[in-house]
Amino acid sequence: MTEGETTLQIILGPKIPISTKFFNSKILIMNDQNLNLIVQGALYALVLFSIVTWVLIFAKGFQHWRVARRDRVFSSKFWSATSLDAATALSGDASPKARLASVGFDALHVADGGNATSDLEHSWDRQELLERHLRQQIQKEYQSLESGLAVLASIGSTAPFVGLFGTVFGIIHALSAIGKNASASIDVVAGPIGEALIATGVGIAVAVPAVLAYNFYVRRLKVTAAELDNYATDFVNLAQKNGFRVVKSAKRTTEYKKDTGIPTQEGAFA
Length: 270
Description:
Elements: H1 3-12, H2 32-80, H3 84-87, H4 96-111, H5 126-146, H6 149-181, H7 186-241, E1 252-256, E2 263-267
Antiparallel strand pairs: 1-2
């Protein structure tokens, strides 16, 4: 019995026969080609993760930049309006705050009886109806800005483990090479060990930008959501001072009668 067999017998117990043949290449069922495919597959998956991460980083960056710029422009115009009635002409779909204002004006218009119905949806009083519509719109804006963040979080948490998966099979490849060549020289293990280390490094390199971007955009999302909450509160206060009523904007739009084709002037919210 060799020294290695004696040591393993002490560890595993005297009733379990151990031979150095247990450690030869036969224990590695996968051949070199399969091991290479697994390591390369892990690397290709990490490259795909990296592409998705950077696409989302630039897409979310542009989205937040556009939202901030349009909200800033709309806020300037809204607070420059002479009254809440005059601000009705500013509502639109250009920014989250503009859409929030549009929903608010529509809710006040419904409360005034413009679309009076007796169903449960319109059974709220003026303030409750306004707050409900604003809250629902804030949730829609939040969901729009939140899209893609789950992918960044998933990539940031799984990329290191995908890299580690490739590392494990790279090491197995190295052990297989040692068993086949009966040598642990640098020429034998350099290639497989190099692949294993590369998989680990790529996994970390993919995860770090994803995690940093996720944290940054979650912070931006919270700031934007807080701004929308503050704007909704201000809107409710202004509507309360106005008696939860708005007068249709003096801004006119040209429409045509279906039966005569004669242009008529209708209010912007008619």
